Structure formats: C-alpha cells, structure tokens
C-alpha cells in the first residue's frame, strides 16, 4: 500500500486479501458463467462487517473511516470486480444516502440491516436521457393524500433486483425551482421506495459485456405510492444530495479500479515468471518486463490517487477534484493493465476461465460507471476555474 496503514487497517487489508484469494477467486468463474450473485459470499462479507465499515456503531456499523471501506473494495477487486462493486454500490449508493441525508427514523429503520449485509440498497438516478445530465430527469413524483405518487423509468441500477434488495432511492422531479437570475429549473427530490412496493417493476437483467455476477436492472415505476415520510433529505435537494453521493462514491470506485489494475499486474507477474518460451521465462524478454514495469507504475499511481482522495474526505477537506482525478487515473490504469495482461497471456488471456480475461471484459465499464471519463475531465476543469 502506498499510504502508511495503521495496524488496524493493515489487519483489515490482510483479512480481505486472504478472503478474496481463498473464497472469492476460486468461485469467480462459476458465478460469472451462471451470471448469478453469490449470496453465500455476500453473506460472509456481511459477517466480516464489510458493509458496515464507514457507519457508526449505533447503526450496526464498524465506526471506521471511509478509507477503510476503500481498502476492502480494492482487495476484493483484485479477484472479482463484480463482488467489489456489489460492496461499493451497496455502501456508497445504497446505504450512504440514508446515512448522509436520512432522518433518524430512516437511519434506524434501514441502516442496521444494510450495515450487516443482510439487505442491499440501490440508487435510482440514471435514465435514458439523464445521468450525467440530471436536468434530463423525467421521472416525476407528486403528493397525493400524504403519499408520493411516482412515475418513470430508471436504467443501469446496480443491486436493484437481488433477493436481498430492500430499497431503491429514486430521484424524481417534484416541481420547479427559481434560480437567482429568475429562470426556472426542475426541482429534483430523492425518495425512498421499498422493494416490493406495488407499481415498482424490476425489469429483466441486462445482457452485459462484463460484471456478470453484479446485479443490474432497469426499473419501471407506475403510480408507485410511498408515504410522504419517505422523502430523503429536503425536498428539492435531490441534485445536491446525489452530487455528494457521487463524489464520495467515486473515491471507493477508484479503489475498485486500483484493485483491478493490481489484480492484472499480479497475474501478469506470476505468468511471466512461469511461462517458458524458447527455453526461458517470457519475463526475461525486455519487452515483457518493461510492459509489466509500466503496469506497476499505473497501479501505483491509481492507488496513491484514491488514497489521497479518501484521506481528504475523512479529514473533512475539499475532495471533489481529487475524487475525479482518482476515478480518471485509476479507471484508465485498470483498462490499460487489463489490455496488457491479456496480451502477455496470449491465447490464455482470451479464455473466460482466466481471471485476466474477465478483468479485460469488466474493465471497460470502469471508464463509464459513476461518471464517464469525459465527466471527470469536466469536473476537474471546472475545479481549476474553467467554465463552459
């Protein structure tokens, strides 16, 4: 690790690394082929306390820094990105909005089960015309007799259709707000929709290129009624709340990318030392060991980037730009390392039972999910003082 870990953090890193190598990795190909979420593995992660790492103990959590969640996500992603994103999204997108913006009653109701890994939450933001452009949100919610009545569709929603999914936080248009210049804008509000609410339909899962074990569905909401008390945060603060959610989430997502980059690096080193061609290990060829040296430089940079962002987050310092830098650097590192590792493995790197092949399929989404590369560049440019 680039950052000097405390004794407790090093113990966590070692524990999750061992779990990833002995439990997650051996099962990865089987569940990838079945395209199933391994509930036994998720349950064990819950018993390890991973889903509760950043939450206070009064809500069933571990009371540890956000940095520690990132350590766990990084180690899991070395072995299986799908398992890592299940944890990252379950905490960052499912539970964290309830903790950050929820009432005390909402926290008491939802956080203990989410922190124990007995339940998963999802974050319903993206639509066909909305995601990076939140102004394109078409899902609506109106008050009727003390209930929110919600109509719309969401897409690409992680953890939304598992058998332990218990809630989806939906962003919806609840009216119009007036800007300082007198113009109007859509009033976006976040609302908790419990799983199984009549009118909420979890559509069939996507046929994805990668992340086959991760649960991802489109959602349809037709006259979904939930109590007015399911408002999450202040009415009209949905945009600000989800920006905070995404900023924090990008830090853990960057750790996931770093883990993928390290996983590819470790596989390439192992293979280059044992694979013999023309009478000697291929790692003795300068092109191969130089390629691996570049992979090391990428993985190292990715790790330092998320660690810097996580430390700033935990210390209450501004971290928006650092989160986007970490996401940009680490996702590109993961993609490049997956490509190079597959090339080093040759034909074996194209076989799905090989971890490198799965990393290669999985890595592309890292440059898209939780804000595309282009969005990260936009955020960084704006933080540097540039405006369109």
Automatic annotation (TrEMBL):
Acyl-CoA dehydrogenase/oxidase N-terminal domain boundaries: 6-118
Domain Acyl-CoA dehydrogenase/oxidase C-terminal: 236-384
Domain of life of the organism encoding this protein: Bacteria
Keyword Oxidoreductase recorded: yes
MF-aspect GO terms: acyl-CoA dehydrogenase activity; flavin adenine dinucleotide binding
Cofactor: FAD
Keyword terms of this UniProt record: FAD, Flavoprotein, Oxidoreductase
Pfam families in the record: Acyl-CoA_dh_1, Acyl-CoA_dh_M, Acyl-CoA_dh_N
Keyword Electron transport: no
Start and end residues of each Acyl-CoA oxidase/dehydrogenase middle domain: 122-224
Family to which this protein belongs: Belongs to the acyl-CoA dehydrogenase family.
Name of the featured protein: Butyryl-CoA dehydrogenase
Upper taxonomic lineage: Bacteria, Bacillati, Actinomycetota, Actinomycetes, Micrococcales
């Amino acid at each position: 690790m680039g950052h000097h870990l405390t004794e407790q953090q090093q113990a966590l890193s070692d524990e999750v690394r061992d779990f990833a190598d002995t439990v997650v990795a051996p099962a990865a190909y089987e569940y990838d082929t079945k395209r199933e979420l391994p509930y036994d593995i998720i349950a064990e992660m819950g018993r390890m306390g991973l889903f509760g790492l950043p939450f206070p103990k009064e809500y069933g959590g571990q009371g540890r820094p956000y940095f520690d969640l990132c350590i766990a996500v990084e180690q899991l992603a070395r072995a299986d990105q799908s398992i890592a994103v299940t944890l990252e999204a379950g905490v960052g997108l499912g539970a964290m909005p309830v903790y950050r913006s929820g009432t005390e009653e909402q926290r008491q109701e939802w956080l203990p089960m989410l922190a124990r890994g007995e339940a998963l939450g999802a974050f319903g933001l993206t639509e066909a015309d909305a995601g990076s452009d939140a102004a394109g949100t078409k899902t609506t919610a109106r008050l009727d007799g003390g209930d929110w009545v919600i109509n719309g569709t969401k897409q690409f929603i992680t953890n939304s259709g598992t058998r332990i999914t218990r809630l989806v936080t939906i962003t919806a248009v609840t009216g119009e707000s007036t800007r300082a210049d007198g113009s109007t804008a859509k009033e976006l509000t976040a609302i908790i929709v419990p799983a199984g609410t009549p009118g909420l339909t979890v559509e069939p899962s996507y046929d994805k290129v990668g992340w086959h074990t991760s649960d991802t569905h489109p959602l349809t909401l037709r006259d979904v009624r939930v109590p007015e008390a399911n408002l999450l945060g202040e009415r009209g603060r949905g945009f600000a709340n989800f920006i905070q959610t995404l900023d924090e989430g990008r830090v853990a997502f960057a750790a996931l990318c770093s883990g993928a980059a390290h996983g590819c690096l470790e596989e390439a080193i192992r293979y280059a030392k044992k694979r013999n061609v023309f009478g000697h290990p291929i790692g003795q060829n300068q092109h191969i060991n130089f390629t691996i040296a570049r992979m090391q430089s990428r993985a190292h940079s990715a790790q330092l980037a998320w660690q810097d962002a996580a430390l700033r987050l935990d210390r209450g310092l501004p971290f928006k730009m650092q989160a986007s830098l970490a996401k940009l650097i680490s996702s590109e590192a993961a993609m490049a390392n997956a490509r190079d590792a597959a090339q080093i493995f040759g034909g074996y790197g194209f076989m799905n039972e090989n971890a490198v092949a799965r990393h290669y399929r999985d890595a592309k989404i890292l440059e898209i999910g939780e804000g595309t590369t282009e969005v990260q560049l936009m955020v960084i440019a704006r933080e540097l003082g540039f405006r369109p």
